[in-house]
Amino acid sequence: MVQRITIDPQQCEGLVVALKADQLHYLLRVLRLKAGDRFIAQDGQGQQWLVALSDQLDQAQIVEQIVQTGDAAKEPPLRLIAALPKGNGFDQVVRQSTELGVTHIYPVMSDRSLLQPSSHKLARWQRIAQEAAEQSERISVPEIFAPTDFRACIAQITLKTDFCYLCAARTESPHLLKQVLTDLTSENLRGVTLAIGPEGGWTSDEITVALKCGYEVVSLGSVILRAVTAPVAALSLVTAARELLI
Amino acid sequence: MVQRITIDPQQCEGLVVALKADQLHYLLRVLRLKAGDRFIAQDGQGQQWLVALSDQLDQAQIVEQIVQTGDAAKEPPLRLIAALPKGNGFDQVVRQSTELGVTHIYPVMSDRSLLQPSSHKLARWQRIAQEAAEQSERISVPEIFAPTDFRACIAQITLKTDFCYLCAARTESPHLLKQVLTDLTSENLRGVTLAIGPEGGWTSDEITVALKCGYEVVSLGSVILRAVTAPVAALSLVTAARELLI
Predict the structure, then answer these.
(1) Test the B interface: residue of A86, A98, A229 with most B CBs within 10 Å
(2) At what angle do helices A89-99 and A121-135 cross, to 10 degrees?
(3) Which end of chain A, N or C, is less surrounded by CB atoms within 10 Å?
């Protein structure tokens, strides 16, 4: 299997990709590539190239641009709004969500969030997303936004183009799977936004605000999931429902 | 919310539950319960009691047995056969699978497994499953079996009573979601067994053996999932499909 790394567009000059120290470490030490060996360089925004390691070993030569086949290229957005769990739990959310095809991640503070996130977390999450995208052979790295207040976040991204779902535990709401199987059709393959609450769930005021912003309240069933598992379960359902349409 | 702990049936004598040191630590130090405070004691096999901490604080008095309502009590089995990922990855598989309602976990060594599991892992996984079951308010703790060879395992649990699926990446097989939505009906709510491969996937010989044992080969879609994420994604789909039938 051809390995892939994510590069900054500025690293490209003509047909040459200048490699950075951490990329060189990964290519030469971890993957043990040698001059002439090929790998994929991607810019994380949908462009990717087959490249070959040059003789000097500090740069790579573009062999050809890889043109993405139709479907993957025009895949509609899959946005995750997730309340920050305690500890380093969000690292796992970012990693697993990226594997499952999320395109935008909005970490939020909710009424029942315990965590005031430190400012250097964002860079860490972006690094994790990039690694996970490479591992999962995704050509786009999900965009991760700085943590904001939940109400501010959903007021901003009440997108007319998305089906927006708020997942709430212990409700009588319809199951997310039922809802996406009904809503998503091949003719109407809109984006999907999922909002997932903290341990302890959303407050009733938060649910009211989300309803006003056009969110549909859905359930993930009778199981009680931790805040790190709920996004994975929810994204699995949306990704799978979409695949049934293709 | 009433907290719950798992007890050994031998701890019960008449209406008194003798508490062990680690349970006392959890109840008195972590939860800070006081004499008279109530919690749920469950035996991990489907029985549970509302109990109250006694004045001596080293035992609890049974207040009443909790009778489970129909559905949860007779839920059909959900078995996971999973190739052991490297490192401590299986801890996460056990924890998240338990949240999602797995009833039996069979860790297996497959042709592409790197790991020869150490013997003390099993006790650790059982502890994680117990904690996760308590957190998720599940009355049954999943049973975890000692690691075995994949072929030996599926030869043993080719159950006539289960729908058996082998999840394989990069195949043209039908999607697991499509398959369970077709197979599971309210009249035919059989158990489900899911077999999930290691990083790198099953070998073609393993797939052939599974087919012979009556397994259906299914896909988890075009996403490339790590061995710790694939079980969570697959179990989410089965659990959700079942909920649509209730």
Answers:
(1) A229
(2) 30
(3) N
The predicted-structure confidence for A182-215, as pLDDT tens digits, reads as follows: 999 877 778 999 999 998 899 999 999 999 999 9
Chain B residues with CB under 8 Å of A220 CB are 240
Q: Residue B193 corresponds to which tokens in the numbers above?
A: 């067994």
| A176 lies within 8 A of chain B by CB | yes
Contact A225 B100 (CB under 8 A): yes
Tell whether A92 lies on the interface with B, counting CB pairs under 8 A: yes
For residue A224, the chain B residues in CB contact (below 8 A) are 99, 135-138
DSSP letters, A31-86, are S---TT-EEEEE-SBS-EEEEEE-TTSSEEEEEEEEPPPHHHHTPPPEEEEEEPPS
Distance CA A124, CA B87 (A): 22
Query: Residue type for B235, please?
Result: L
Contact A236 B237 (CB under 8 A): yes
User: CA A33, CA A27: separation in Å to the nearest integer?
Assistant: 6
Q: Is residue A245 less than 8 Å (CB to CB) from chain B?
A: no
CB atoms within 10 A of CB A150: 24
Task: Tell me the Cα Rg of chain B.
Answer: 20
The Cα of A29 is separated from the nearest Cα of chain B by a number of Å equal to 20
Q: The whole model's pTM is what?
A: 0.80
Tell me the CA distances in angstroms from B224 to B78, B110, B159, B167, one per residue in order: 23, 19, 29, 12
Per-residue model confidence as pLDDT tens digits over B22-80: 888 888 888 888 999 988 888 877 778 889 999 888 899 988 888 766 445 567 899 99
